[in-house]
Specification:
Helix content is about 50%, strand content about 10%. The chain is an alpha/beta fold. A 4-stranded parallel sheet has the order 1-4-2-3, with helices on both faces. α2 links the parallel β2 and β3. The longest helix is centred in the middle third of the chain and has 15 residues. The radius of gyration is 19 Å and the shape is elongated.
Length: about 170
């Protein structure tokens, strides 16, 4: 993909990223590729500041309302799907425009993610139930015992991250 360029417009919610990205997309005849971890879901149209219907009509958008919250989705899946999309779109475009507020999704695409095992949904459910009943601190302590490196690296007050770290450790 020599000579190809991906322009990323990143930042917090409601600062004008979408309008600016659309201007760039029109200038470069590019679609807009979203890297927002919430706007990707069909059911999350409120509280996520998605593009308006008018903005969606101005240029082609990808990863806006494209998946369901009832289906498993992760930054790792986004990385794979977005790379496939970029490869396809770079066949027709020299410049592509990406916009969003999810640093994790942008980082997943630019730098890749560690190759974690697929989620064990049953184990995740059990760990999440335990975290709700026993508290995240109990699971964090268990993580400290089995994987002190992960324990030291994550936000121990974030239930989802503690559950995922413990899930990965127990699965591997």
């Amino acid at each position: 993909m020599s000579g190809k360029k991906l322009i990323q417009v990143l930042g917090p919610t409601a600062v004008g990223k979408t309008d600016y990205a659309i201007q760039l997309a029109l200038k470069y005849s590019s679609p807009v590729i979203s890297c927002d971890s919430r706007q990707i879901f069909k059911e999350m149209r409120i509280g996520t500041a998605p593009p308006s219907e008018e903005q969606l009509r101005q240029v082609r958008h990808y990863f806006i309302f494209s998946h369901s919250v009832s289906d498993y989705y992760s930054a790792g899946l986004y990385e794979v799907e977005a790379m496939e999309l970029l490869t396809r779109l770079f066949q027709e475009h020299d410049v592509l425009v990406m916009v969003g507020g999810s640093g994790l999704y942008a980082d997943a695409l630019c730098y890749g993610l560690d190759d974690f095992p697929p989620a064990d949904q049953e184990l995740r459910r059990l760990l999440t139930d335990r975290a709700l009943k026993e508290g995240v601190g109990v699971l964090a302590e268990e993580l400290r015992q089995v994987d002190p490196e992960s324990w030291a690296a994550i936000d121990l007050s974030n239930r989802q991250r503690v559950v995922r770290a413990l899930e990965v450790t127990l699965s591997t």
